[in-house]
Amino acid sequence: MREILAAVAEQEKGEFDFTEAMFNGFRGSKVFVTYYRLKLDYKGNTITINYELGNHNMAKIEMEIKNTEVIPQFLVTNRSQYYRLLYRKANILKVECNNLVFKRFIEELFFSTSLELIARNNLFEPKIRTSLTDSGMKMLITDFNVAFSDKKGALLALIDFYKSIVDYSENRV
After folding, report:
1. How far apart are CA 129 and CA 36, in angstroms?
2. SS3 for 111?
3. Which residue pairs, CB below 8 angstroms and at least 24 apart, start in 105-112?
4. Are 78 and 96 within 8 A, CB to CB?
5. Which one of 19, 58, 66, 170 has the fewest beta carbons within 10 angstroms of its own beta carbon?
6. How many other C-beta atoms can be found within 10 angstroms of the C-beta atom of residue 46?
7. Residue 104 Rama label (left phi>0; alpha psi -120 to 50; beta)
8. Three-state secondary structure along 127-144?
């Protein structure tokens, strides 16, 4: 994973670092955990990517949204396994958003960034949402488990997704 993130940092001209730690586990065992952090800058917006491998094997991507009025609240999740059994051709990723124009934009982004294809071919199940902080700033946050094969493809697709959100917010001002 270190090589993948270092290559992405070089490709995107970002900052990459990592920290290794060891924790006491159950009954005297040791848990080795590595924390990776990648910071990218895109048009004045900082995209922060954090991976934790060894214990939870989770990743989190965050970005502060500058034009908070332009980007509505939304949530992206995966459809249930039962739904996908009944409707095999349906999209795996689903969007919940009150703004129908923005919802359609997000659904189109799934295909232009290959997120839908990666989710279909892997066990990639991102949860993408906007969230308001205590200070009133709007954040775009993605959480996902990294227990799937196309880690680099998913990361690059999510970076493209975030960049497209920035472009959308700048074009609407």
Report:
1. 22
2. helix
3. 105/168, 106/74, 106/76, 109/161, 109/164, 112/160, 112/164
4. no
5. 19
6. 13
7. alpha
8. EEEEEECCCCCEEEEEEE
Those residues with Cβ within 8 angstroms of residue 31's Cβ, 6 or more apart along the chain or in another chain = 22, 23, 24, 25, 54, 55
Residues ≥6 apart with Cβ < 8 Å to 141: 60, 61, 62, 128, 129, 130, 131
Q: Would you mind telling me the total number of residues written for the chain in this entry?
A: 173
- Which strands sit side by side in the sheet containing 45-53, from one edge to the other? 15-24, 30-42, 45-53, 58-65, 138-145, 127-132, 74-78, 93-97
Tokens found for residue 47: 């995209």
Token digits of residue 58: 């989770």
User: 37 forms bridges with which residues in the sheet?
Assistant: 17, 50
pLDDT (tens, 9 = 90+) of the chain, 173 residues, equals: 889 999 999 999 999 999 998 888 777 788 899 999 999 999 999 999 999 998 889 999 999 988 778 899 999 998 766 666 666 677 889 999 999 999 999 999 999 999 999 998 888 999 999 998 888 789 999 999 998 989 999 999 999 999 999 999 888 75
Instruction: Confirm if 58 and 143 have CB atoms less than 8 A apart.
Output: yes
Neighbours of 160 (CB within 10 A): 15
